[in-house]
């Protein structure tokens, strides 16, 4: 489950970043890029909150 | 148990070890510091500081080389100065200073420090408000505004201030967790916003970038009324814009949790993601704004980011401001709490948050941010020199560390003399030597070192030095 969430999170980060390069290359419009960045933002915050801090707590527990 | 009681118990349980060394089992790993530094320095200020270099006519070559050298010097300062002291003492700056300088001196210092932190946090809340106000067509403050320009602005600032304060009330862990999550996303937004507007600047391939950067984005020509920035301006700006935190030792509050002093190098994430990539990205956005608005002097980070990256850009401005305001508010709370350790952390933070939010209502705070950041670092710098010498040098010279604690004194004159003479020296250099404020930190630090060593030698009583005993922490 955690691995799946991590994959989703990294895809979300990619969806936040990559569209701007597609705009740069003239493949998509700036409007579509902004929409994709917003979707990536929502998915990142929802998915990352489940595993990022859990990783820290595990690390502290190991100390 | 009622939810109110539960909340109060949780708040009371927040223990930040203000007056005791951090116990070994509470030390944090690399990830915590990497996330905190990346989040803290990829922040609301970046939307202001990046455009500064464009406005001051920095050339592309000077900008890149100045930022690389200045950021490396800042990281080295965090590791070799702050990291070493924080790991050796495991205490906050405020408690360490009290042991060295006495509680009457730290009372004054802490009040000054807390006020500076409140203003910094307040300016970041105001930057966030420029983005939150977009959907409400909130009238944005202009460069000449001093007082709030609408009821809507005040309401927006108070909303953001309330959220920031509540999160800070729950302590370092909550702040660290949020910064961890937000940091990778924020840097993606900064990069994406800048890359997405490159075609509008005439950049259609990677080989176009440098020629356009040199001739259009950072063309070396300052805006009307702005001074010209050289390599030296940029290098010292990058090094000293966080002088209060590294050379001034304010980040002992964070790095005392580090397992090793080398964790100070984790500040590199903040420097090279925030103070390199984000500054360049926001400079690109501002340059485009200047071109498309035909040289308008209006400046509002929220709308500029929204225009470039849509809703995600506006959200980035809000969160970037928030992740700076949060730890700054936390530090201000620690500064105030050291005046009376019996005060609860959460109650102090609530009070500090209220003061900060009121200050954030005044746009002048944001408009004078550059001058403020320079002054903030300079004021804290001499005490950083004092702490470093006290921890590492004094005993090697046959003098006593923690002299106020040793003598049960409320005031160590050596520290007071050092602070006053160093700042008078810097003021003199500025007024009579015409040296700009960002260059004053380096000569000022050496003056502080010399004055503190001489003053300590003169003031300390030899009989007390011989009886001094010290407890060393070995973790």
TrEMBL record, chain A:
Domain of life: Bacteria
Assigned keywords, A-Z: Membrane, Transmembrane, Transmembrane helix
UniProt KW Transmembrane helix keyword: yes
Transmembrane segments: 6-24, 36-54
The protein's name in its UniProt record: Uncharacterized protein
TrEMBL record, chain B:
Highest taxon above the source species: Bacteria
InterPro entries named among the record's database cross-references: CodB
GO cellular component, one term: plasma membrane
Assigned keywords, A-Z: Membrane, Transmembrane, Transmembrane helix
Transmembrane intervals: 63-87, 107-131, 151-175, 182-203, 231-250, 271-291, 303-325, 346-366, 372-393, 414-431, 437-455
GO MF annotation list: cytosine transmembrane transporter activity
Protein name: Purine-cytosine permease
UniProt organism field: Algoriphagus aquimarinus
Upper classification of the organism: Bacteria, Pseudomonadati, Bacteroidota, Cytophagia, Cytophagales
